[in-house]
Amino acid sequence: ASRWAPDADPAEMEDLFPAAASQMNSLALREFIDAFQRLNEDERSLLLMVAVGGFSYEDAAGVLDVPIGTVRSRLSRARGHLRELLGDGEAARLIAAYSEPQAASL
Description:
Largest sheet: none
Order of helices and strands: HHHHHHH
């Protein structure tokens, strides 16, 4: 399967989330980035593809050469893993408060 991943340095992740950066304080953003980096490569790549890159599920399925149902399942697991890693921290609270529909895309 093909992989899609930005060339961004993890230390520059703030640049990938400008709207979140303006809403979150530095500590919460750091918590989010730390949790995001703990996801496995496939989870990070898929979340970046869809949530940041704006890929549709269909486009992501094409890039990964998998059925769309597989993309949906993997995204659901990746989102759940990210929520688990964020726990009850400030980042989790700010993401939930920022916008429930937008948080669902993560």
